[in-house]
Amino acid sequence: MWKYSELLPIEREESIVSLAEGGTGLHRCKRLGRKLGLKKLYVKNEGENPTGSFKDRGMTVAISKAKELGKKKVLCASTGNTAASLAAYSARAGMECIVLVPKGKVAGGKMLQVTMHGARIIQVKGDFDQAFKTALKLAERRRDLYLMNSLNPYRLEGQKTLAFEISDQLDSKTPDTVILPVGNGGNISAAWKGFTEFQQLAIAKTRPRMIGIQAEKAAPIAKAVKRRENEIRPVHNPQTIATAIRIGSPVNWPKVLKAIRESKGTAETVTDPEILLAQRELATLEGMFVEPASAASIAGLKKLHEGGKVDTSETIVCVTTGHGLKDPSVLKRMPKSQTGYNLEITNRNSLDALERTL
Ligand code: F0G
Predict the structure, then answer these.
(1) Dihedral, CA atoms, 220, 222, 226, 227, nearest 10 degrees?
(2) Which of 44, 82, 136, 281 has an alpha carbon 20 to 30 Å from 354's alpha carbon atom?
(3) Pairing mode, if any, of strands 26-28 and 177-181?
(4) For a substitution probing ligand 1, which of 106, 147, 184, 325 has the most ligand atoms within 8 Å of its CB?
(5) Could you tell me if the CB of 322 is within 6 A of ligand 1?
(6) What is the Cα–Cα distance from 272 to 277, expressed in whole angstroms?
(7) Best mutation site among 49, 81, 123, 323 for ligand 1, i.e. most ligand atoms within 8 A of its Cβ?
(8) Cβ(78)–Cβ(99) under 8 Å?
(9) Is the CB–ligand 1 distance for residue 321 below 6 Å?
(10) Buried b or exposed e, range 115-141, using 16+ CB within 10 angstroms
(11) Could you tell me if the CB of 320 is within 6 A of ligand 1?
(12) DSSP designation for 148
């Protein structure tokens, strides 16, 4: 993604801390498209990034900036992916890293990543919103800690490259609709900024409709859009299997509402069973294994199409934000018939039995 460096806020090339992020695939999905009744469906698979999520785009820019500013210690609150990304990039830059996560609510793969990269993990009782408030207060008290949450403008600058790539991969033909899962709202607003910049630079003629998807019991933004309200009502004790977007009080909500309004987009909510079904369909029909939060974009698309809010012939890009291996707990939710057979082959009879099952 550093091919877009002219549009990124880093002064000196030697400041760049990179793990070869960006350049993820934009995959045409004909089989899933046929199933959903859509002619031009694409998935922009951000799980292909170095730490397995879209966060790396923002992190490479924000850590490079931190280096330029002479910072030595970085801090974030996270539902897991920001923490994993920050832990990796701070290790690469030789900085100390502290992450605050909601206790017991972070997917196993993400905890493993953070631990492996040597960051200090502090588990905060409560949900992400409490962890975030704690991080804000800590950063106020301790000026040596540089806060890396999506309030950090450099992260959003990096994340806008998602839009540049989508536009380039479609030969500057802007898609009609871009659908993203929404948690804190950084990614959808950064993508909107990216599409806007490409239009201002006359690289692209138009901008797409931006659609945000949230989990039903963690959906303050989607509900505000549906109620046509100009402010969100925070959700206390948000719940969803998609722990990455289990956020009740998203900090970037004004920017998200603005992006949706300006783009004439919308928002939708999806249930946990709908998310899990979409995750399986993308994996079995297209070979892409994404984490539950990412599958929310596909689940949301299905609902929007059923509700007549998306046309059959539109060019649609669903952004899948993180890799499926991050959250192995999903295995427990799968039907027994799909999780394998136990068979000891001792003689010809058991081999015959095996053959009959196939
Ligand atoms: N998808 C995944 C896999 C995420 O990890 C996140 C956010 C989102 C979607 C939503 O993006 O917050 O920019 O609207 N994860 C953050 C974290 C909150 O701490 O890793 P958003």
Answers:
(1) 20
(2) 281
(3) unpaired
(4) 184
(5) yes
(6) 9
(7) 81
(8) yes
(9) yes
(10) eebebeebebeebbbbbbeebeebbee
(11) no
(12) -
- Is the CB of 106 within 6 Å of ligand 1? no
- Span from the CA of 53 to the centroid of ligand 1 (angstroms): 9
Q: Is 42 exposed, middle or buried (0-12, 13-18, 19+ CB in 10 A)?
A: buried
What SS3 string covers 3-14?
HHHHHCCCCCHH
CB 102 near ligand 1, within 6 Å? no
Average pLDDT per block of 10 residues along the chain, 358 residues long: 97 96 98 98 98 98 97 97 98 98 96 98 96 96 94 96 98 96 97 98 97 98 97 97 97 97 98 97 98 98 97 97 97 82 81 86
Dist. CA 233 → ligand 1 center (Å)? 19
218-230 pLDDT per residue, tens: 999 999 999 999 9
CA–CA separation, 159 and 155 (whole Å):
6
Both tokens assigned to 155: 């992260």
Indicate the residue type of 297. S
